Amino acid sequence: MKHIIILLFCFFTWTINAQDYHINGKVIGIKDSTMILIRNVERDLPFDTTYVVNSKFSFNGLVDDDSEMFFIRTTPYEKTLTKRFFIENTNIDVVLIASEEPHVMVSGGILQNQSNSYESFISNPIKERKIIEEKMRNEKDTDKQSELMEIRSSLYYSIKDLQIDYIKSHLDEDYTAYLINELRINLKNEEVKDFYNVLDAKVKESKYGKIISNYLKKSIDFTKGTPIVDFTLKDLKGENVSLSSFKGKYVLLDFWGSWCGICRGKYPEYSKIYEKYRDKGFEIVGVSLDKDEHKWKRAVKNDNLHWTNLIDSTGFLGDIAVTYKVWTVPIAYFIDPEGNIIEPITFNSFTEEKLVRALNKE
User: Fold this and answer.
1) CATH 2.60.40.1120 fits 2-106, yes or no
2) Where are the domains of the chain?
3) Domain 232-360 -> CATH class
4) Strands, E assignment, the chain
5) pTM to 2 decimals?
6) How do residues 15-31 score in pLDDT, each as one tens digit?
């Protein structure tokens, strides 16, 4: 009986381990004892760390979904030795190469292998664009800069055409749904819908297929005059606050996160605007997409944000972010007193002049 119990225990343990992911890592041109870090960016988890020993490293773990997005880097940080990649509960091979052209190679798992095929398909114009962008940074002559900008613009459309070609020729792959989800930021909903409708049925039922389906059901192409979609969130005191409660005022609806340096770098200027016009019919409603409430509250305190502060811990895949097409931060909307969109605001382009022009129309 004892032997049977031991065998069952061993079988149970082996079954669990068989479901884990195992990263087999190798390095070229990187010293032993270098720290390697990986992080599940999809779930905003802390870094897991290990060290290079005999030019090798490894990680083990478990992902809950069919696949999840991870990020890998070294210490000291080298931008060229970073990569986002998909992890499934299987064997994953990672090679970090520090050469004249440092890069990271990852293979293993259905989605990552499909991602590798896509990267290979589109690699030439991507390389060309990087070369042009490097030349633009170093070019002082304005005429030559303009020429380079035209070349970069042409490459942008070449890349977009290739992306569309790839989607049309890989309708049976889960990565195609991921790609459509990434490209949606530059597409109208009807365009996203056209791509989604021709996907294979099994791809529509995949993780990213379901994300696109939810996006199409809930997101809105907000333009000038579009009515807001109301929502209710908790403020710093834990009390419910609805966006509609600010009707009668001009509102800057500002989506941000404590990790977003670009967002927080603009807040000293926003604070000046807010203090000057808060008693003249203007309100800022900040919606943090932090999953950690403590990080949100600490950022609000440290940055002295005195306007209305709300939190939506469901993040970028939550109903509010999906509805308002918040795919990154900062993204904001300038709203009139009737609750209609005046203008979508991207990358902190809100200014005092915009507010003054609106107020002067009253």
Assistant:
1) yes
2) 2-106, 123-218, 232-360
3) alpha beta
4) 21-28, 35-40, 48-51, 56-61, 68-75, 83-87, 91-97, 103-107, 232-235, 240-242, 250-256, 282-288, 308-311, 331-335, 341-346
5) 0.81
6) 444 479 999 999 999 99
